[in-house]
Amino acid sequence: MTRTLTILAAVAAAATLTGCVEETAAPAGQPSVGSAYDLKAFEGARAGQAEMGIQSLGYEAVRSEGLTTWWFNRSTGACARIVTSDGRYSSVTMLPAEDC
Questions:
Q1: What pTM was computed for the model?
Q2: Which residue among 30, 35, 36, 49 has the highest number of C-beta atoms inside a 10 angstrom radius?
Q3: Residue 95 is inside which H or E element, if any?
Q4: Contact between 39 and 32 (Cβ < 8 Å)
Q5: What's the rounded mean pLDDT across residues 81-87?
Q6: Which of 36, 31, 67, 35 is nearest to 53 (CA)?
């Protein structure tokens, strides 16, 4: 009986928390903020170390201009522009797919 009550309490807590999460649709070709394909979390990371993490999410570098690189994920259509400064990703901007 105690185990059943514990499970019911956990389910009720999860349902309550789920109601607190606001889902917003991302524009076409852009991942939802906080999704596994949103690269904003890489801002401030060391460029050499973060590159493998970006590639593991399915992104590939499609073009570069100076210290700016555009990354595209063919499976999701997501695009990111990443600016490197002092060996770190100083700016990560998610863009529409057509920008890649």
A1: 0.66
A2: 30
A3: strand 88-95
A4: no
A5: 96
A6: 36
